[in-house]
Every structure is written in C-alpha cells, then in structure tokens.
Amino acid sequence: MKISLASASSRAGHRSGSARGPLALGAEVRLVLPAHRPGERPKGEALPALAVLGRSNVGKSTLLNALLGTKVARVSQTPGRTQALYWYRVGEKFDVVDCPGYGFAKTSKEKRDSFEGLIESLLVGVPEGAGPEPAEGKGAGATAALLLVDSRLDPQQSDLSMALFLRESSVPCFVAATKWDAVKPSQRVRQLRTLAAAFEGPDRPLLPVSAETGENLPELARLLRAALSPASKE
Ligand code: GDP
Description:
The chain contains six helices and eight strands; from the N terminus they run H-E-E-E-H-E-E-H-E-H-E-H-E-H. It is α/β, with parallel strands linked by helices. Residues 133-137 have low confidence and may be disordered. Helix 4 (157-169) links the parallel strand 6 (144-150) and strand 7. The protein is globular, with a radius of gyration of 17 Å. The chain has an eight-stranded mixed β-sheet, sandwiched between helices. The chain has helices at residues 5-11, 60-68, 109-124, 157-169, 185-199, 217-228; strands at residues 16-18, 28-35, 49-54, 85-90, 94-98, 144-150, 173-178, 206-208. The structure holds guanosine-5'-diphosphate. The site of guanosine-5'-diphosphate has 19 residues, from helix 2.
C-alpha cells in the first residue's frame, strides 16, 4: 500500500558536546548532517535512527535539549526557515533526527510538499534505485519515531494526521505529551484520558512529560534507548 502524509491528512546550528541528558547518558552528541533532500542520510554505515516530530512550538527543541543534556536543538524554528532534517549522532550508537515543526496555518503548499517528502522518505525509507544518486545507508527508514503533542491542548488535526501516518508506516512509535507541568493537577486525569484515547495504542505508549521539571524524562529515555538498541531489532 502506498503511504503518504497527504492521504493520511485527508483522512484524519552546529553544536556538539558531551551530554548528560537521560537519552545521551554522557555520550558525545554532534550534528552530523542537515538534510535538505528526501533520502539524504549521514554517510557511512547507517545507525538506528529516531525521528522526532511535532507541531511548531510543541516544545521539541526544549525537550531534545533536556533529553540529550546539551543545547543541540535549534531554538524555535521560524515559519520562514528552510526545511531540513537535523541528524544528531549520539555516541556513535544511534541518530536523533530533529524534524521540521509542522502545523503552521500559513505554510505554503510548496513548503508542505517539501516537508512531506522529507518526512516520508525518513520514515518509510527510499526504495532501492530511487533518487538521483545512490548513497550509503540510503533505503532504510527510521528505526523509531517520537511524536510530541502539547498536553495542554485537545488533540489537534495535524497531530492526528501524523499519528495515522506513523501507524500506517509501521515505524515503532512513542508519544510524549509535552509541557505537563502546565496542566493543572485538577485537569490531569481528564486530559490524559483524552490524549490517550486519541494517540495511545497497544504498541504505542504515551507519556506525559515536562522538560521544565524533568517529569518522566528518564522513563521516556529508557523506552527510546531500548527501541534504538541493536538488540531490539528482529
Ligand atoms: P519547538 O518550536 O517545538 O522547538 O518549541 P520550543 O522548545 O522552542 O518551545 C516552545 C515554547 O514552549 C517555549 O516558550 C518554551 O519555553 C515552552 N516550553 C517548552 N517545554 C516546556 C515545558 O516542559 N513546560 C512549559 N511550561 N513550557 C515549555
């Protein structure tokens, strides 16, 4: 079956350093590639790759910085920016791919198309022989995906579309509901139920997290590391 983001929608800075965040565990984190073209991946042997996705302003940069324990992620992406996938290598063990934020109402069709091309090729992979030049590591899709949703908001259409696309692309997926510290304790049970009904599945855990307080970051990092370890591959 041909999977595309468009069909799912219709239905539903170079910094590096040794990092102490719970996902990096002291390993060096470095930007290895800003990928502007679909299918572009770091050269050499492909490592397990985690695609990190979410609407603009969901708190993706802040969460990545907290998980990796270093200021790797670019601060807020402005709508006018060029679309690129930022590949960070963590201790030569796995890659974290910071994907462009989506969901800006004013995004042009051209920009949406480029976003969809980049994301689809990252998640689904590029068929053998496709594209202008063969590159090492080309072909394979991401090992796992981390979908970020804003825990303060009811499920958003663009997030539901992305969740559907991820389900159909069969990439193991984790959902983190960000900014959990900003949800009043009296509203937490109801809000978590709403988010879980929309995004959680039997093989798709959802965790409410806060980059501000660190709540649930070690648990999230543990799940992600397990999914990215070579032993977890069949
Ligand atoms: P991005 O566009 O998805 O990369 O989002 P940013 O990381 O730039 O964050 C967007 C806004 O959300 C900023 O004002 C952050 O300070 C805020 N934010 C990010 N994480 C948290 C969090 O855990 N709790 C709260 N209360 N605010 C957060």
